[in-house]
Write a structure and sequence with these properties.
Blueprint (H helix, E strand, L loop, with lengths): L2 H7 L8 H13 L3 H14 L4 H13 L3 H17 L3 H17 L1
Helix pairs in contact: 1-2, 2-3, 2-4, 3-4, 4-5, 5-6
Length: 105
């Protein structure tokens, strides 16, 4: 069983939550399954909307689908969340991603 299958087997169980959904989203994104990655990253945020790493990766996944507006929205929300919780590094990274996106537009 590969990593994605192992993670999927835990969905709906006692370990289901933001970290599991984030991990599955990251694995799916790495495997090129971007649409499903977005679904799982949004699910991670449904469990914990303060999960700044999930916002950051969601923005990246949205950008990979060509949806720059959704990427920007995810990063803006992620920056607000990261700032509110003192996650300085994540906020900094998302600001860089957002600035690059705005420059390329």
């Amino acid at each position: 069983m590969d990593r994605i299958d192992v993670l999927k087997s835990q969905l709906g169980g006692s370990r289901d939550g933001a970290l599991l959904r984030y991990s599955l989203g990251a694995a799916l994104l790495d495997a090129g399954e971007v649409t499903e990655a977005i679904v799982q990253l949004r699910a991670a945020l449904d469990f914990d909307a303060r999960y700044s790493a999930a916002w950051k990766l969601l923005g990246k996944a949205c950008l990979e689908t060509g949806d720059a507006a959704a990427a920007a929205a995810a990063w803006r929300q992620g920056i607000a969340v990261a700032d509110a919780h003192g996650d300085v590094q994540a906020a900094k990274e998302m600001r860089v991603f957002l600035a690059r996106l705005q420059r390329s537009a």
